[in-house]
Amino acid sequence: MEQARSYKEQWETLRRANRYQIFFFMGFLPFVFLFVCLFAPHLGAQKASFISGCGYIVCGLVFGNRAAIRAKQFACPRCGKRFFGTGNRHNDFTRKCMNCGLKKYAHE
């Protein structure tokens, strides 16, 4: 029972990292649109677009890459090795551990 709960907690860290990546990918246009709408009267549309785009890119590089690295380096709950890779092989889309074969989001 204790083991299954720890699996669930570990899978939740992977889900959280994936959600952050989706948030940064999908949030670009709404963020830039909102920023331009709010600051275009004061800065001008081109300057507001440039500032918001650059700001979003910098935040995305910092926080988005952090989430991507966390997801890539995710340790398998069963074997403790990298879930998405072995040696020089790597697969972001695998549905099971590339080392021990544990299925993604399994509770065993």
Task: Note down, in words, how this protein is organized.
The chain has 108 residues and is mainly alpha-helical. The chain folds into two domains: 73 residues; 32 residues, no CATH class. It is built from three helices and two strands, in the order αααββ. Strand 1 and strand 2 form a beta hairpin. Helix 1 packs antiparallel against helix 3 and helix 2 packs antiparallel against helix 3. It starts with a helix and ends in an 18-residue tail after the last strand.
Task: Provide a short characterization of the protein structure.
The chain is mainly alpha-helical.
Main sheet: strands, sense, barrel: 2 strands, antiparallel
Q: What's the quaternary structure here?
A: single chain
How many domains, as an integer? Answer: 2
Helix and strand composition category: mainly alpha
User: Any idea what the shape is?
Assistant: elongated
Element pattern in H and E:
HHHEE
* Beta strands, count: 2
In whole angstroms, the N-to-C terminal distance is: 9 Å
Enumerate how many helices there are, as a single number. 3
Q: Biggest sheet: strands side by side, in what order? A: 1-2
Average pLDDT for all residues: 84
The helix content, as a percent range, equals 55-70%
In terms of DSSP E residues, the strand content is: under 5%
Using the CA coordinates, give the radius of gyration: 19 Å
In the predicted model, the low-confidence regions spanning at least 5 consecutive residues are none
